[in-house]
Structure formats: structure tokens, C-alpha cells
Write a structure and sequence with these properties.
Blueprint (H helix, E strand, L loop, with lengths): L10 E2 L5 E4 L4 E9 L3 E6 L8 E9 L5 E15 L6 E9 L2 H11 L8
Antiparallel strand pairs: 1-3, 2-3, 2-5, 3-4, 4-7, 5-6, 6-7
Amino acid sequence: MIHEFRRAKRRKAPENVLVTDTMTERVIGRIGNLSQTGLLLIASEPLTDDALYQFRFTLPGVDGDATAVDVGAHLLWLDGASAPGQAWAGFRFIAVPEAHAKRMRTWIDAPGSHYE
């Protein structure tokens, strides 16, 4: 039996939720999963180990509206993916405006969500 030790549940992203590095205004990948404390990024751009990033991504709403979310994040780990030019990257959030944290909570806890 596998036991999950993460403190926050992680919602799988069923659709492409693109992530933009707000410092460069470049899309650097897409969300694999998202929790209140961090995200798994499927990166399509090179990342710097142990660096701090400022991200923006748009979460789809249950009623059709979409909301942009801004977060400050610290790259904790990086691992090569099987697809050329891609990597798996684990980030911990270090700064999230309260309104954006509330929006993430709503999306993560939405009915019909799938978790890892």
C-alpha cells in the first residue's frame, strides 16, 4: 500500500493550463498538478535550479469564467522528461496574493476534480 505524505491535495490539470514567466513574458510550460502550496510544471523552456520565479496562469472557472493567478515560486527539483526538450519541475509557492489563493482553492476543490 502506498501512503500519501503530502499535506495539500494536488489537483490534476485536465486541460492545458499554460504557465507564463512574468519576468520574460514567455510561456515556459504547463501545469501537471496544482496544490495550495505548489505546482508540478511540465517545462518546455530551460529552468535554473534553486531559482525564484514569478508565474502567471489562468484557471478555468466552473461557470465559464477564467481568472489569471499570479504566484511567486521557488524551484525545488528538476528532472528530465521522456519528451525531448521537456522537464518535470517541482515548485513551492512563496508568495500568493490572498485573492489568487482563494481562486486556487476554489479550482482545486471544485466538484469532479481528480487528485494525485
